[in-house]
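Deliverable D4.2, example record:
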Amino acid sequence: MLSLLYWIYCLAFAFDFRGDTGGSSVQYVFLLAALGSGGLLVLLGRRTLKNLPGVYLILIWFVFLAATPIVALGQGVSLGNHIRTSLPLHLMGLSLLVVQVMAGFGTAPNKLVFPLVISGAINIAWRAVYALVIQGIPLSEIRYELLSSAAPFIIAYAMVVFFFSQRRLPWEVLIAGGLTFGSLFISITRSYIATAGFAFLACVALLYGTLRRRQWTVPALYSKLRQTAGLAVLGSLVVIVIAASNPATVERWVGRLFDNAGTRAETSMDVSMLTRKAEADAMFNTLSLHPHTYLFGLGLGASYQWDEAYLPELLLVWGDRDSLNDHTFSPGHSTWIYAIFSSGYFGLASYLLIFTGGLAFSWRVIRKLSVPGVPPDEYMILPFVVIWCYISQTFTANPFMDRFAGLIIGLFLIFPQVFLNRYRLAQEPQPGGAIASPALAKLRPSTAP
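Output generated by the structure prediction step:
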């Protein structure tokens, strides 16, 4: 029953898409599936919600969520705009509860990750079908429409499996990873270079720790080197095939990297940077009109316009002034700036606490439960890398623009509770003096400093 509900919860937004304002009946079905399955899971496992330390993350986030409608109401934000903007944040909160419950029932970590990998792969493929077939956007023009909010998770998962898995590369990693990197290459998305870099550096740092604890054997390291060579060849072939079948993609990459985002316009800087500066300045200028709003912000869903000072340059790229000067309630292109704009320093502190708390929780579990001489557990390492990947996105984009992103981030912020609960279970006396199962019994605190 729990497994079925969790599968439904993960798959609920696999076919989600960015629709018109107000949503569609199909999206309401997705939402009801997520709320229904997640709510029932929480109801069934309500007694497990108080398990420490996961409950602290839950309390931090739900205090923030409780304050957001009060601020929005006080600032006169449209109810529809507030709900639409805050929904990914509420789904993140529901995910915190869902994993806390699944951890309380001792669910195996691989049974929590696999449904999400399948859901992410489906979402990446569906975004391509929706953009190319339903919306009819030419392949030579497609950009953000192709991007899935599951991409940072898939990048992290592929990197962790590559660095730490004791098994051959599983088929779901090859399929999901191929879909992800193919979509990112076609969509000409530069920010994901940083995301892959964050994932790589996090894995290298964690790999150093496993080597210090002598969790690898020499044959295992040689096997990883052979796997590296094979993946390098495979990745190169994929890029060559895409470039050969769609030469315009290579030209667009050159333009995006070296020619003011490929616009050939006489702008003072990269056009993407200009739009982000116009957006950020507009938000801070609006807050500065009433300095007290820096404390709690203008409310999730508050509208704003880009700063007029940047419009002359932006008009060199987009000739339609009206479309540039529209009011928007989008969460913007920076999680941190929008946090201040919508929720003030209170919101900024909440985001910092939940992300740093999730990283600290994951790191603590890795250090506590890593066993010298025993190969590292890829699923124990995964939350740390996933959180870093989504943090990398928060500076140039706002992952909380998508519902699926909120769901995924919440799952991994509290994922280490799964291992902590299983470790505690392994320490409990078993009926009749029996020992815990081998999978649980091997969990022991690390003696490494």
